[in-house]
Amino acid sequence: MLGKCLCGQTVFELDLPKVRAYQCHCTLCRAQSGTSSNLGTIVPEAKFSWVSGRSHIKSWVKESGFTSDFCSNCGSPVPNMLRGMPYYWVPVGALIDAASVEVIAHLCTSSKATWDSIADNAVQYADLPDIKTFINELNAE
Question: CENP-V/GFA domain: which residues (predicted)?
């Protein structure tokens, strides 16, 4: 499954038949995505590879440690390694063929925008769940 930034300079591949994703509704993710939530997934490092364009990636790191990697040409968010863990965060909107994406959870629903509504039956977490447990849920077969 291929993914790329808006201009196509940065291309990556996931070795997965399907993607289990989440939507995070926290204020940081809303600001980073420019919309009501950030649609992402977390995949094992062994299931992720860069195809091209790593030299185009720039990073911004918030004091809290939150990292945002993006294409230096078009500004699109691109995958980045989780700090201290063998996993990549992947922006699901960058996937070229997202037909096999399933949203399994909504995170930080207690801080979602007042104008935001959740219209599916995915599990809702008021805050962030335990990261290791949640990564296992995302990567369950």
Answer: 1-116
As a residue count, the chain comes to 141
Angstrom CA distances, 65 to 28, 60, 110, 114, stand at 12, 10, 22, 27
Contact of 107 with 114, CB cutoff 8 Å = no
What pTM was estimated for this model as a whole? 0.93
SS3 25: coil
CA atoms of 38 and 92, how far apart (whole Å): 9
CATH architecture of 2-138: Beta Complex (2.170)
| CB atoms near residue 140 (< 10 Å) | 8
